[in-house]
Amino acid sequence: MSQKSSPVDTGILLETGTNELEILEFFITEAAPEGKEPTNHYFAINVAKVMQVIETPNLEQPESAPHPSFLGTIPLRDIILPVLDLSVWLEIDMPKTEQDIVVVTEFSQSVTGFLVSGVTEIHRVGWREVIPPSGVISKSTDAIVGMVDKNDRFIQLLDLETILSEFEHHDTAEVTVGDREYKALVCDDSATIRMMLETNLNAANFRHRILNNGEEALQALLELKRVAEEEKRDITDFVEVVISDIEMPLMDGFTLTKNVKEDPVLGKLPVILYSSIITDELRHKGDSVGADYQVSKPELNRIAQKAIELIEGSTE
After folding, report:
1. Beta partners for residue 22, in sequence order
2. What is the model's pTM?
3. Residue 172 phi, psi (nearest 5)
4. In this structure, CATH architecture of domain 182-314
5. Which own/partner contact pairs does 68-77 have at CB distance under 8 Å and 24+ positions apart?
6. At what angle do helices 214-230 and 253-262 cross, to 10 degrees?
7. Which fold, 5-164?
8. Distance CA 17, CA 126 (A)
9. Using one digit for the tens of pLDDT, what is the confidence trace for 99-141?
């Protein structure tokens, strides 16, 4: 089988720490009752996760599909590409046409295709433009990072990791337990990931505070810095490590790290960044803002052990 494809130009790498990202906008058409016009719902994902777009392979869902959105697999170069119908997961009644496309993504160490109605364009946006999600944005709120207002339409920024988590078996490796209680500040906008991290950090003997985004985390750190200076204590009496996702509304993990590392007091704190977009090619972005360690989301169980190593190393 062969498909016409269009690679997505991701050659423009944004300067790290500017709190900006590039997103690929696409749409899913919802069927309308007779006599009414169909409705387009607009979504987007980080361009860093997109390999290319291809024409619809016109798959018929197999009887043994592991999930209602699973359409089957197709050969793509040297891999077998699983294809998911994104409209099914988002509970949108999307009529299938010959103009549909598949957005081929690569993140969390896996390659997946998502069937949608069409692609619109690439936008460069600031994380401050991303409105945090509320209970009314989507039927599948766990998969929505936030919204971008484009005046004539709202674009919903998707968290594809949440969708793929239903298909994956998470690593249940034993978590390292610290010899004493450690103190961590954590930020992530995903309730699913926050719960996973909380479980691991509790098991590893961490006392932690979990916040929703980098802006909340930075304000919390600055307040801890103020209290430490007022009480003439070291900042590590209050927090010993910062653990952060990269993709978050208002302030991303790169910008948070840059602010922490440039602060004369907070700069001594080790910072761990994690994301599904961390690859060997993109690791330099975290290095450029001073991150002490970077880990891909499939390996979250490594965070507690690495945090302990960094804390103990920084106090020797």
Report:
1. 124
2. 0.74
3. -115, 30
4. 3-Layer(aba) Sandwich (3.40)
5. 69/163, 70/167, 71/115, 74/1, 74/3, 74/113, 75/1, 76/3, 76/104, 76/111, 76/113
6. 20
7. OB fold (Dihydrolipoamide Acetyltransferase, E2P) (2.40.50)
8. 11
9. 999 999 988 778 999 999 999 999 999 988 888 876 444 444 5
